[in-house]
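Lecture 7, part B: from sequences to assemblies.

Below are the input chains for today's worked example.
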Amino acid sequence: MAALTFPQASSDKRALEEGEACTPRFDANGLVTAVVTDAADGMLLMVAHMNAEALALTIETGIAHYWSRSRNALWKKGESSGNFQHVVEMRTDCDQDAIWLRVNVTGHDATCHTGRRSCFYRTVGQQNGVATLSADGSAPLFNAEDTYRKK
Amino acid sequence: MAALTFPQASSDKRALEEGEACTPRFDANGLVTAVVTDAADGMLLMVAHMNAEALALTIETGIAHYWSRSRNALWKKGESSGNFQHVVEMRTDCDQDAIWLRVNVTGHDATCHTGRRSCFYRTVGQQNGVATLSADGSAPLFNAEDTYRKK
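Predicted structure of the full complex, as structure tokens:
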């Protein structure tokens, strides 16, 4: 259980955008968007969501926690795979509805549940008027099937 | 009006995650999350949202378009300020509910509506058990008040 709590977001735009109070604007589901990049080279690793508890635990422990929308549960990233994310820097945006984590990943240095380093392993293009995806060739760094197999 | 359309997302996890079909998983509001970084140095510039029309226009024109949730309208970023975003590369993530744009910004090289280069100009920390924000000192690159004043 986290000790940190967050005051309600100010309705004063200037306070929200220029102030020193951390007052995240959680959405109707109680979540903010979290963008996660590698602190070493800036690679975008994943996009996830945090509720107040996950955000507080991340600040308190320095290890990234999220809210899993698919499992409807608090999610300490890396608990199954060992690929924990150590937070080097945390930022928020002008209207405080998004969080940016710059992290160092332990374990296999892999963030995606497919075993790849990043979730963003496909580029978007178009061919003959149809949007298409192309894999960038990045290979799994661990065996996801074994790692996530239900015990 | 964009010509590109997107097929419904596959319920087959493997097709969604490993396939070449671009089938974004728009949420209940018809939106995907868009993460925007500077193609030159990887700085996170903003987090926004796209509906199918904005995504299609971005692919077709190479200039970033979004859906403004506050104005409830299609939003060609830079129309007021001249700070257009030219897309160098577009990626999507494993489950296709997020888009990553690597861009070059024209005009003042500023993305935030406050006039700053990035929306993420404050770091998050804690002092005496309270979460706090610290400005990173980045200054406005254009006069936002003049630029966005209602005509």
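Note for the exam: DSSP finds three helices and eight strands in chain B. Keep this in mind when comparing with the next example.
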